[in-house]
Fold:
Amino acid sequence: MFDVLGIAPTNDLKAIRRAYAAALKQIDQQTQQAAFEQLRAAYDRALAWARHQQEHPAPEGRVEAEAEARAQFDATARDAVPPDAGPPAAAPVDFRMNQPQVKVHVQAHGDGQDNTRRMARQRTRAIERWVQALMQADAEQLDDLWRQVQADPALLHLDAADEMSAALLHALAQHPDGRMPLFRDASARYGWNQAGFQLHGRPGVPALVEQLEYERAIWRGHARAYRKGHERVIRLLQKKPAPSWRLGRRVAGHIHRMRNQVPLWFTLQVPPGRPEAYLDAAMRVPRYAVVLDAITAFVRRWWWLALIILVVANGVYKEGTPKGLYSQQGAGQNAEAAGPLFPSAQSSDRKVDERIVITQEAVRPNGDRVFLISASIVPTTRNFAPRLIVPPMNYPFSSVLRNQEGQVVLGLHLSAAGVTDAWVIKSSGFGEIDQGALWTLRRARTEGDFPPAGIVAPFSVTFTSSKKK
Structure:
């Protein structure tokens, strides 16, 4: 057996393995199957003999005696061969002379196949054990496990690497959840890529590796902002196992998109059960949240309609004093203040003519109210009598809600050009009502004959919750 390996008899296991590896490089396993089987049988018997020698060391001087006897046997065999006998045939070597004098089952040449099968079974059991340990290990434990795998004697056979690679690929295909660190380490050790798997005598690229490379290409095709947003979700799934319903709703869309586009790549990144936990949390939404979502969606869609309703309800006017409505002598107060700026007996430097009487004459179909102005200073012809046309009053919506009522007395400067000035003589006590009256009278117009200087007359407006004037 040591002649086949090309070394002297030794119980050093490392020397035997190095000799086997060196001899194996000289053999083509595809075409020299018989030579490979002979070398393998010699290697197995040498290992068994060396282990036995380590467990049961021979007495002192026994090794030297056996070596001398073996040398004499080889010399006698060479002298017995005649010169013209041709190349000598390979004589069987009696390995029993090197065995200690104990009851030991000697392995004959026919036992080589049984020993090979036994080693294969041991290798299979070792591979199953290490694959299970690697699949259950955390990312921090992988380096230590890989060192133990390399030091396992059962995996020193040259076929062990391919068998281990195939077993790991099968296990990862069955349960890929959260095992991206293991996949990366195994890919680097066993060459799971297209270049490494297209060598002579090896199978093609595994389906798992091919699908993962395809999904990686799809993922790299997305925009950078899209990838960063989804990668943040992956880190969140890795760190937080129990989410709230708010968090689940926030990331549910990202999970669905990654499951549809890159399922294997996403599954390898995320621990088992995490996506399902987040999707379940997204479904446990309280009832009040559903109502709030419906309101929020309605406001986002119809905000412009709500704005129009708000403007119309508030009388289509802004808070504050419209420019050009008051004179500096009249009601120049800010409408944001209510009662204090409009006292109940407020007066103005501009005097009104108490002799002028403004009475309602008719209501037109469009809602305009026609007021007849009668006084001794205006013409008496009825067809050309001065009139004041007032549009419908705007009752402020805030005053309606707060049930505010009152009467405001205004001073008006009227001319043929319309209402040129208006101010508050007597406030209603509510700034919103006073503003509504002033805003309405600003849009009033005049008809008929007016003196060149115009007239200054009082005009009262009453606001009630049931009737607008």
